[in-house]
Amino acid sequence: MRIAMIGYTFYELDPRVKRAADALLESGHHVDLFVADHDGPRASNDEFLTIHRLRMRKRRSAALRYAYEYGFFCAWAFMLVSLLHARRRYDLVYVHNMPNFLVFAGCLPKIGGAKVVLDVHDPAPELLASIRGRDLPGWMHSLVTAEERVSMSFSDALITVNESMRRRISARSGRPVTVVMNLPDPAVFDAREEPRERDGADWLVYTGSIAYRHGVDLVVEALALLKDEFPALRVRIIGTGPALESVVRMAADLGVADRVDFLGFIPNHEIPGLVSRATAGLSPQREDTFGSLVFSMKVAEYIALGLPVVCSGTTTMRHYFDDDELMFFEPASAHDLARAIRDLLTNPAAAGEHAARSQIKLRKLDWPAQKEALVATVEALAGAKIQRSRDESTMVRRP
Known about the structure:
alpha/beta; 2 domains
């Protein structure tokens, strides 16, 4: 098949989009990728993969800015996909949200017989409410919900990232939904069989976006609560985001600035080398209507590297892991986070047992199985075209 894959994201920085494209490429399909980027070549290609980049910088801060960036990217993708479809005849358009209405960039291919897949990473109404820090106004909630439903109706198949999201999307769309979990690539995040070598010091690590909904401020507050009890304890924070400046100020105000290392953005493939010797990984996600639906990718990465994990006890994380696998704490409670860290540091043997059991659970979910589900969904959707192409190829090869 020839596939147009669209995502308003920076390709090299988005593991979900990159792995979806790689999975289809490894199965022998051609992928034309349409993404945003702030630098680099506007287009690049090899035998099976062609990347088209729209040069733009994400400066989202208000609803109007979100609307402008989403609309501008969608218009660009629509025009380019339509033009290239006239020459390449796409068999399938694979869209990563947000926004959901990117599916309409595949209008002309769909009219020509192509199928459309919508991969829902984030639920639009819940995510926007979480970003705002309060419920959406009635008119905005109705508008965002309508956008989601219309986009899902336009799609021929729906994919999402975990079971909680599957139930939510299936209930809203009234259609079956395939789960392809966002799990670490074992080629990058390798769970070593030999015992991990430690630095000799206690330090915790957080990787990911620094935003209020992700609870990085709770980590700094918990560190302040423990600073006298564990004077050598440090935290490394890898990532950036809209709450970075406020978290840096909080660390200074609470007297722990010298114990928090802000490393900024680090490419995904370099993270294992930086975190594999940590005492534990942290996932302090807040639980709101959005947080309750999130499966934390960082948790899976920590587990794959053999780290014990201190994790917010959100609905989705408790669905996949038990109390003897992750060290849970009450969501949004810095005091209970401090308690969980204290338990970790005072009983390292128990923490190691948690890490071992969580690895067993992760292996049952593994990325190769998720990749197989993604490819199977896409190929089943366009099965007739795939079979026809294979039959024609066989006829050509016959003497």
